[in-house]
Amino acid sequence: MDSIELGGSGLRVGKVCLGTMTFGEQVDEPTAFAILDRALERGVDFIDTAEMYSVPARRETFGATETIIGRWFAARPGARQKIVLATKIAGPARGMDWIRGGSPDLTPEHIVQACNDSLKRLQTEAIDLYQLHWPARNVPMFGGLYFDPANERSVTGILEQLQPFDGLIRAGKVRAIGLSNETPWGVTEFVRIAEANGLPRIATVQNPYALVNRVVDNGLDEVLFRSGVGLLAYSPLGFGSLTGKYDDGGPDPAQPALGRLARFDSMRRQRWARPETLNAARRYNALAREHGLTPTQLALAFCYRSWRVASTILGVTSVAQLDEDLDAWSVQLAPEVLTAIDRIRWEIRDPAQ
């Protein structure tokens, strides 16, 4: 598998990353261990997690995913040295009062404490890539379409956020930093302010990138390219919609085995389960079959081969799913398939924005 350096961080990772948001909710600890073992066996050297995981977020499972990964490291001597480990600090709580007491801000003290807590759960001395899960400032995200100045509020600024990240790097607790769910303006400002003040420069941005959500292509791709920041593409299978599992009738709560959109009511209210998103997924899934591909192969090959993507994050619930996703690495999409993909997007744009 190909590898790439993340920004100018010195971190070199494979083009495929194992996402772990299912660990601790959909995936129990023994199965998580089996998935992690298989990923390492197949050459995956990049793992992404977050303090708020597992998902859907609940008070009872806050930190559960990091804890499982920490136990796996403890049970597998030598595994930590083979892995580039990424985790994320949650932004302001967004209704989750179990995260920093529901604080509407993200202060320097919050950043330092959250990092120390993640290190403890992960049973490691350093986090390779520490990411801000979502912005502290007013910004549309997670399906929001429009910026609204009426929602402006006073929060910790970008300079004051970068300073504690710098301190964590100097202390040897973090090697590089990144953002997630960020806008072109946010990326530009983080880079500008870091360079102007001699502070750590972001190496990555973790944003959704899938056939049903290519908002990155609407200007963020140019910002990333010109800034030398790598894109970590999450939800390349559109929460399962691009596997074909919901083509017949959509996510049915009576069939929770289908996946998270069927199993969790909170997720059926998200952008990935919109009727427009599911209809778009059916178009892409049909295109895959017309060309002798599975929907999964089409969706992943699109991300794997995009010049925009540094590494694609895979979320799985079984070893079999992991193998299927990794096997898709060998798929190359013909020019006529890529043209057909763009033709569909021209008609329906980005329904899971």
Number of helices: 12
Q: Specify Rg, calculated over alpha carbons.
A: 19 Å
Unreliable stretches? none
- The CATH topology comes to TIM Barrel
Taking the sheet with the most strands, its summary is: 8 strands, parallel, barrel
Overall number of strands: 10
The CATH first-level class comes to Alpha Beta
Q: Would you tell me the overall average pLDDT?
A: 95
**Quick one: overall form?**
globular
Q: In the CATH hierarchy, what is the architecture at level 2?
A: Alpha-Beta Barrel
Give the CATH superfamily.
NADP-dependent oxidoreductase domain
Strand content is: 5-15%
Domains counted in the coordinates: how many? Answer: 1
Description:
With 353 residues, the protein is α/β, with parallel strands linked by helices. The chain has a single domain, classed as NADP-dependent oxidoreductase domain (TIM Barrel, Alpha-Beta Barrel), CATH 3.20.20.100. The protein has helices at 29-41, 64-75, 108-122, 158-170, 184-197, 220-227, 260-263, 265-268, 275-290, 295-304, 319-327, 335-348; strands spanning 3-5, 12-14, 16-19, 46-48, 84-89, 127-132, 174-180, 204-208, 230-234, 309-315. An eight-stranded parallel β-barrel has the order 3-4-5-6-7-8-9-10, surrounded by five helices. Helix 2 packs across helix 3 (108-122) and helix 9 (275-290) crosses helix 10 (295-304). The mean pLDDT is 95.
